DNA sequence: CAGCATCCGCAAGGATACTG
DNA sequence: CAGTATCCTTGCGGATGCTG
């Protein structure tokens, strides 16, 4: 998307109205196919890199690392590397990240209801 | 992503465990940057095409139409075209779509909290 | 084990012009 | 007004090989 700093529209009285949008804020942080799934797995507790990878067999290593970094930069999780051989790296949700459980849980509940309504199977991660 | 029908991992007892994931189900329906934002705008009631467009100045027409179609195919909204000139088309959430308000509201609430925590402005749609 | 570097194909998405 | 159609670019994301 072309980066636009400001954007405007008009209300019925032809006054300029900035369209503010909390959902856009969320999508900028956890948008994309994989991020909510990563968060979903970390909600049950800190996990090692290999554990997350095993839990998400469909994601490539490149994408997993990339998204973990972005989530770290956005302060949703922290990365802790123990200085041992072989490496031992764990990822843990921050307070911000943990609070996303309300979003993830709402997603899960809706999913179960909708899958039942449409009589479909739950997909693999 | 390469399409893989089945995928497996193992638990501590070396039993095969399928990783099922409700979040993946949700992301398959409302993943991508724009869909949750479209839903957000429709939660306040049915809207004409032009109203949605005006509310989302950053999305291109092509993307908007494309995502509206996909949401319609996924039974999250319905499209109703009045046979008049000029055309009058309204988009309305289905029952499934309306039930996503729990997800969208959880997103919004988290956004407000996180924006306050990080002292940032609310972005434009 | 937990990554990083590089190459590269392809599809998502932008820009533009046209229409019932 | 509410879209289609077409072209074209960008960058997502896969594949592969290497490393502290």
Automatic annotation (TrEMBL), chains A, B:
PROSITE patterns: HTH_HXLR
DNA-binding is among the record's keywords: yes
Name of the featured protein: HTH hxlR-type domain-containing protein
SUPFAM superfamilies in alphabetical order: Winged helix' DNA-binding domain (SSF46785)
Lineage: superkingdom: Bacteria
Chain ranges of the HTH hxlR-type domain: 21-119
Taxonomic source organism: Dyadobacter linearis
Lineage: Bacteria, Pseudomonadati, Bacteroidota, Cytophagia, Cytophagales
Keywords: DNA-binding, Transcription, Transcription regulation
The keyword DNA-binding belongs to this UniProt entry's keyword annotation: yes
């Amino acid at each position: 998307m072309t980066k636009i700093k400001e954007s405007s529209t008009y209300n019925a009285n032809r006054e300029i109205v900035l369209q503010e949008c909390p959902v856009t804020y969320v999508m900028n942080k956890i948008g994309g196919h994989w991020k909510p799934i990563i968060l979903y797995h970390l909600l049950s507790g800190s996990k090692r890199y290999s554990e997350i990878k095993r839990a998400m067999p469909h994601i490539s290593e490149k994408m997993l690392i990339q998204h973990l970094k972005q989530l770290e930069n956005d302060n949703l999780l922290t990365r802790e590397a123990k200085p041992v051989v072989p490496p031992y790296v764990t990822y843990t949700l921050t307070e911000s990240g943990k609070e996303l459980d309300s979003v993830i849980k709402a997603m899960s509940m809706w999913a179960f209801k909708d899958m039942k309504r449409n009589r479909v199977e739950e997909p693999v991660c």
